[in-house]
User: Fold this.
Amino acid sequence: MAGKNDLSGRKNEMAKKKKGSKSSKEEQVEKSAKAASVEKSTKASKFKVGDKIGFLTAEALVEGELDYLCAEPEIVIGDLDGPVGTAMATLVGNQVAGHTKVFAILNSDVQIKPATLLVSKVTVKDSRYTNILMGTVQAGIAHGVLDAVRQGILPKALANSIGIIYSVWLDPSILKVPVGQVKHEALFEVHREATVKVIKKAVAHEPDMDWLLENQDKVEHYFYECGKKGQF
Assistant:
């Protein structure tokens, strides 16, 4: 996502403040969205082998207590014999310095299914960042995808025929945390939780158009509001 590098520190500082200052309107909107998502997710996994899942997209945000404990995935889910499969093959074969695409794995030699291709939103320039991204974060995402299958959100019957393109965000400010002091377990859980959340939203088509139209004037873009207040 363009501009993520420049906004990273400021974004997390503001997000941390935001977490403790939600208005009743924001809480009402969140509750409405969660209720709609739960209702639709119960219908999400009624597929059989040979069915098509189509082209699904979603975005989600999960934050922990520390600035760098933030996951904001954006995903595309689709059939491997369609445009998503073509895009995945193209991405794998078109590696770019700083934005290496890798499959989600439990460990080396254990790729998960459905095939999930990770694409970093941040231009990677540091080996320590790479180790965290391709270690803790990758593991959290891999477990999150499997959790989604186990919970019936993603159809197990289509595990070999669908794929996920997963745009992953790891805050570059994590490099300011001294070696040995990064909370890897918490980082793992944030990305695991965010993965289940974003997949559930994609499969349930959340937020749907009716909800968006109803809540358009109730949802305020956080950084737009910060901009209007002259905070950056």
Observations:
- Residues 1-6, 14-21 have pLDDT under 50 and may be disordered.
